[in-house]
Amino acid sequence: METWLIILPILLPWLGAVVVWALQERAPRLQHALAVAFALGGGAAAIALLPHAGDEALVRVPLGTVFGDFTLVPDGLGLFLTIIATVVGGLAVVFSGEYMRGEAQLARYYALVLFFIGAMAGLVLSGGFLMLFLFWEITAFCSYALISFYNDDPKAVSAGVKALIMTQFGGVGLMVLALVAYGYLGSYDINTFIAQAHTLPAGLLGAVAFASLAAAAAKSAQVPFQTWLPDAMEAPTPISALIHAATMVNAGVYLLARLYPAFAEVPGWTAAVVTVGLLSALLAAIMALVATDLKRVLAYSTVSQLGYMVYAVGVGGVFASQLHLLSHSVFKALLFLSAGAIIHAVGTRDMRQMGGLGRKMPIVRAVFVIGALALVGLPPANGFFSKELVLEEGLAHGPAWAYAGMLLGAGLTALYTIRMVAMVFHGESRVTKHVHDALPLMSAPLGLLALGTLTTWLLAGPFSGLLARTLPFHTLEETTTWHLVEEIFTAPATWLALLVIAVGLALWFLRARLDGLRQALQPLSGLAANSFGFEALNRQISHGVRGAAGALSRTQTGQLNWNVAAIVGALALVLAILVWRAG
Amino acid sequence: MELTPLFWLIALPLAATPLVYLGGHLARLVASGADRRGEYARIVALAVLLACWLPFALAAQALTRGETFTLAWGQLSLRLDGVGLLLAAVSLALGTLVVLYSGPYLTGERGQEKFYAMVVAMVGVMIGLGCATDLFNLWLWFEAMAVTSYLLVAFYREQAASLEAGVKYLVQSAVGSIFVLLGIGLVLANTGSVELQQVREAVVAGGALAPWTLAAGALFLIGFGVKVALVPLHTWLPDAHSQAPSGISAMLSGVVIEAGLVALLRALGPLVAVAGSAETWGILLAAFGAANMLIGNLMALRQKQVKRMLAYSSLVHMGYMLTGVAVALLAGEAAGAAGGLFHLLVHGLMKGLAFLAAGALLYVLHISLGDHHPLTIDDLAGAARRYPLPALALSIALLSLGGLPPLAGFMSKLQIFVAGIQAHNGWIAGLVIFAGLNSVLSLAYYAPVINAMYRQQPADIVAAGRPVPLAMNLSLAVLALPVVAIGFWPALTSWLTEPAGAALLAVFGG
What we know:
By secondary structure, chain A is mainly α. Chain A contains 26 helices and two strands. Chain A has helices at 2-23, 28-48, 76-99, 106-125, 129-147, 154-185, 190-196, 202-219, 228-231, 237-246, 251-263, 269-290, 294-314, 318-346, 357-360, 362-376, 382-397, 400-425, 440-455, 460-470, 481-490, 492-509, 515-520, 522-529, 534-552, 560-582; strands at residues 59-62, 69-72.
């Protein structure tokens, strides 16, 4: 029974993908209903698995030769992320019923979404590195295929390919980790690796620790790999909510959190993790301040919030990072889906062409503001509790400079969030089109996610127990929600953070009087608009490779005499090498 | 000479070759038109190749039981080992499907009976090549394979580009062939034998590293290397593989260059037996592997023609195979040898699928309308809606070539990488990472092709295209199946690849 329960979150969505694909373009409504059913079916199985959390591997299939065992392990971390993937996935699919209505090639859309949901569940439930890597790559493929869903748009295509190449580049790091685990310890098993990591040669352990950090940074869109995520906003909005906010981008944080006990002692590793998180949180927040595309603002804020989670892992706050991950998945999915409702109604993503939408879209505004509260980190939204916990961990166990930076980030978050809310919902309307509020298939998921945003913090206590009980190598303490809340409200760090947030919010209202400050920061905003040079770096690399390819194509002369000369030359070269090595 | 399965496996296609040709010609008596004649030849060819699967199955069964077949005829002997069986499997599989596929593809062409006769001959010759036990016969089979493929590359004899490709292929192969002959001469002069086992014994008995072994090895490496398409000896390949009829492109990329690799390794095997020289040869193979991966990728990156891009990608995948073999040589890792040969098998399947799928689209968009323009990536815009199966098949093939799971290409590359890391050597680990990064690079040219096919707006040429014939769709489906299945269950073919890996180590004297 449990065996089936753990396979179903992968199998059901995948089965659904095949069924939906087989229907092709014949029955869009049935396709939608089936997609919802298969996704939520996977979610139901994942929730039903909760009582089995902490069991040994429920599935173990030897794959033969060098491929090790295929294992699925229901520990708290994996189970929790499976539930997020399937439930948020299900809601995103429900939302798609309205958002994607009338689009062509829905078979491909739903099949890829379901394929993704199953792969994401597989990624976090896998007990071995090889299968983790395999599912990691499948999610990257789905992400690529869905970012470039509108293949006729060259921007969408290049964004998809960019996301694929950048995450795969990082993925090589994860592959190295898997290979080292098998090549040196004889098993792909993750827990075996954590238990025996200290037996590896120190240099090798350091290399794989940093390789894993690179893999995580690429997947979670952290500096210096963050550039693919804003471009990925070419995807249909439910995809941005599901893959690029709530699930896949968390995989990097998941990897770091899971492997923290193995790498914490590696010299410089935690400092590097903290630095990556800090830079991502700050730089992305600044970029969010100057962006005018609603989805790009949200994308930058995702990079920034993921930075908080990475930072939390770096200072040893694994539970804080996972709690923030939970909050963020819910509230960012809410924000993205609300943005989808807005874009669906208005027909543009440019915030400068919005304004005054609050009156026309009261439902959307209500839920968006709830999401915004969480993003800023104000009670009673879930983001408040988790962010405060992250900052508290940072103050207690991390370097002071990093804490100061993250505090500054909280203020910037407040500023860009209120700017976004104001530009979209308030002020003079610049919308010419007739605007409708969220339609039923949209409001249902929005309402549920808003409810979640207000309440998931209540799960903090049980969640800490789940993690503490089922993760054998992490030192986590079980606590109660009440105790956590009490701790947060009595900590001075909380009040300091709230003060900084208040300053951030005040800056927006005082912006007319702060013209001097804005003028002074003009160069910084220019830098931010150019993504601090990271885009230029990407372009240069791509340009360099293509240039090399172009130069090389001249060697294919088509002249037979040159071809033969190359053969004879190669013989001479090989002989020379042989003589040199023999002598 | 006993009539063992091995005998039938080689004799059946070779003996049937004239029958296929004559069958096509005699059909003139009962039917008129090139197509009817071609159809007769095709049916005979298909029947013969299907019949070959029976001795193959018997031989495979016996081999897994540990029996080996030797076919002796006076001085001459052929022996079927794991490597030979693997080569036989790939060439038979591709040969059968290509004959099935090519019926509609060649409609209206002259000389179809020659085409089918040559395909059948090529399959038989490659099976023989995999079983050769002495250098002279190895060379003979190798040349016979080349002769059959020259005719097939230049099949469109009225097309200038096709003839040019044929001439380049012929001349460069001839240069390589001379080198091989010189190498054989050196071996014979120094050991008095061309029989591989005796050569090995003589080399080992010689003790210290003799200069002639280095010279002969270099001649073999470069001579066979032309056919293997080692960079920079590869310059004939993009023309030959893209100008040939698509079924032949599939065979050339999927098994002919790999047969060249088998020939190279067999010839090199005895010469690496001297203590310490395995490392030198391993480094050389690894260097060629690295060059093939990088140069192949860069050359493919800016290709607009689909078949030419696929041809360059064959260079890359030969690089992966060489990496596996190099790991086997450098570290004695059986997993490296098995991984390299696993990749040989998988590459045959996925590259065969890629060429057949691209060929099906080339056929419906260009050839069936009477034009011989190459298929470009822009031609494929929106192809998936009108041609769902070929588009899906090409996507699967490309993703597998790019090493994405859950497809076969991921698994075979992975086995090579595992072997590399198991060697516990920094340089080899570096090579593995280099190979992994090259896989990422390759996505930069595979992915846009898929994006183009799944566009909504069809290119004009797609709107005007013909329907895909059933035989083509059928061969695509049959070939796509294992590419997916091996991705889910990598041990599915380990009955073929593991003995092949062990046999390859034996070739190196391991």
